[in-house]
Amino acid sequence: MSRDDANFARAVELARRSMEIDRRIVREEFLTGHTIVRQPRHPDRYSVFPANAWERPVTPGFLPWSPPEGEPVADVALDGTVTMRNEPHE
Asked: Are 42 and 7 in contact (CB under 8 A)?
């Protein structure tokens, strides 16, 4: 298993564990899956965001809003199913 594969597997596991916590603290109608994003400055590293992280919040927060940076590479559904997004063509 390459370093990139191991990092991706850790990101998937993090997304799945995060959803287990979300189920305990978030009302059911507000649950979303998660999106795994390749970090722009470190292509072998990944970040995990709620699937709705790219939507501007309805109410302003304390800090200015900006969408996550990076390339979304996979979606993790509420049941833990991972769906890869199409890889960009070089």
From this structure: no
Spatial distance between the Cα atoms of 66 and 29, rounded to a whole number of angstroms: 24
Q: What is the pLDDT of residues 14-60, one digit of tens each?
A: 999 998 898 899 888 888 899 999 999 998 899 999 999 999 988 88
Whether this prediction's pTM lies above 0.85 is answered by no
Find residue 72's DSSP bridge partners.
37
Dihedral sign, Cα of residue 64, residue 85, residue 50, residue 42: negative
Compute, in degrees rounded to 10, the torsion defined by CA atoms 30, 59, 70, 13: -30
What are the beta bridge partners of residue 23? none
Residues 6+ apart with CB under 8 A from 72: 35, 36, 37, 85
